[in-house]
Write a structure and sequence with these properties.
Layout lengths: L9 E4 L6 E4 L12 E2 H31 L10 H37 L5 E3 L4 E3 L1
Antiparallel strand pairs: 1-2, 1-3, 4-5
Length: 131
C-alpha cells in the first residue's frame, strides 16, 4: 500500500550505472551520480533534437546561399583558407548531427524506461512498494 510520502516518488535514472528506480533521492544509491527524472530526460532529448536540426538547416541554407551567389568569386584567400573554412563547416555539421543523435538516444532511453516494468521496486526509507 502506498503512503503519503510515496506521492513524491518519481521514476529516475542514472546515466553512469543504469540505476532506474522510483525514488525521491537526488543521487544514485549505487554510484552517487545525480539522478534525472524520466520526464526531464525526454525534454532534454527534444531540445537537443530541435537545436541540432536548426543548426543543420542553417548550415544547409548557408551552403546553398554560398554556392548560388557570386560571393565566392570575391574570395581572396588561399588554399589553406579554403581548407580551414571547409573544416569549420564540417565540424559544425558533425556537431549538429551528434547533438541530434544524442537527443534521439535520450528519447529512446526515456521511452524504454517508461515502458519497462520492474518487479517490486521499493524505497526502503518510505516503505513504499511499486509493482
Amino acid at each position: 500500500m502506498l503512503n503519503e510520502h510515496s506521492a513524491k516518488l518519481v521514476r529516475k535514472s542514472c546515466y553512469k550505472c543504469g540505476y532506474i528506480r522510483a525514488t525521491s533521492d537526488q543521487s544514485c544509491a549505487d554510484c552517487g551520480k545525480a539522478l534525472e527524472s524520466v520526464s526531464r530526460i525526454k525534454i532534454t532529448g527534444v531540445i537537443q533534437i530541435i537545436f541540432g536540426s536548426i543548426l543543420l538547416i542553417f548550415m544547409g541554407w548557408l551552403a546553398f546561399w554560398i554556392l548560388n551567389s557570386n560571393s565566392y568569386n570575391h574570395f581572396n584567400g588561399g588554399a589553406n583558407d579554403v581548407l580551414f573554412i571547409v573544416f569549420i563547416f564540417g565540424l559544425i555539421v558533425s556537431i549538429s548531427l551528434g547533438v541530434m543523435s544524442a537527443g534521439l538516444t535520450m528519447q529512446r532511453a526515456a521511452s524504454s524506461y517508461l515502458s519497462s516494468s520492474f518487479p517490486e521496486i521499493s524505497d526502503a526509507r518510505s516503505g513504499a512498494l511499486f509493482v
